[in-house]
């Protein structure tokens, strides 16, 4: 039964992701009239992109970064940029960023789950994520890697877990 629930959750996340990616709007009128009210809480530029779906009360907006927003136009969190787009959802969470630090948010619930306190953080895999408080980014052309002497694993509550 537990496997069935995980498969069902995965299917739901994939369906929502497809809905979000397929229903893109490129209109300033769309966000001001249909999604964001009051309009002064978020200013949409003519060349920006908003994506929304019909089963969620949240939208992803590209506003010089990627943001999860509610239907009132309030930014909930900034999504970590990955591979020329917003971070992928992994095990129900996606990496978020604030003041240069990385944490995790739940795009379905529209909540920050783990506060952004890490210098480097990988997506969740098998119920845990590899993170570091003190990390540096080494860049080699267009590629970069993270280096740290103190990596650790955390669970989905942000608690340190054993390797």
In which order are the strands of the major sheet placed?
1-2-3-4-5-8-9-10
- Radius of gyration from the CA trace? 17 Å
Classify the secondary structure makeup into a structural class: alpha+beta
Query: Describe the biggest sheet?
Result: 8 strands, antiparallel
What's the average pLDDT? Answer: 74
Number of distinct beta strands: 16
Instruction: Give unreliable regions as ranges.
Output: 11-42
What's the number of structural domains? 1
Helix content: 10-25%
Global morphology: globular
Proportion of beta-strand residues: 35-45%
Count of alpha and pi helical runs: 2
Strand-and-helix sequence, N→C? HEHEEEEEEEEEEEEEEE
Q: How is this structure best described in words?
A:
With 163 residues, this protein is of the alpha+beta class. It has one domain. Helix content is 18%, strand content 40%. The chain has 2 helices and 16 strands. The protein has helices at 2-22, 28-35, and strands spanning 24-25, 49-51, 58-62, 66-70, 75-79, 81-82, 85-86, 94-98, 101-106, 111-118, 120-121, 129-132, 136-140, 143-147, 151-154, 160-161. The strands form 4 sheets. It has an 8-stranded antiparallel beta sheet with strand order 1-2-3-4-5-8-9-10. A hairpin with a 4-residue loop joins strand 4 (66-70) and strand 5. The chain is globular. Mean pLDDT is 74; it is low at 11-42.
């Amino acid at each position: 039964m537990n496997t069935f629930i995980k498969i069902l959750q995965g299917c739901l996340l994939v369906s929502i992701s497809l809905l979000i990616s397929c229903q893109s709007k490129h209109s300033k009128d769309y966000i001001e009239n249909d999604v964001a009210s009051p309009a002064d809480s978020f200013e949409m530029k003519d060349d920006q992109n908003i994506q929304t779906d019909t089963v969620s009360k949240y939208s992803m907006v590209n506003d010089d970064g990627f943001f999860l927003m509610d239907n009132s136009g309030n930014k909930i969190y900034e999504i970590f940029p990955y591979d020329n787009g917003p971070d992928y959802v992994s095990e129900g969470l996606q990496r978020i960023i604030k003041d240069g630090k990385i944490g995790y948010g739940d795009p379905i619930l529209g909540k920050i789950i783990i506060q952004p306190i890490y210098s480097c953080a990988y997506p969740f895999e098998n119920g845990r994520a590899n993170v570091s408080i003190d990390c540096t980014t080494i860049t080699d052309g267009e590629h970069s890697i993270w280096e740290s002497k103190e990596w650790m694993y955390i669970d989905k509550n942000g608690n340190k877990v054993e390797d």
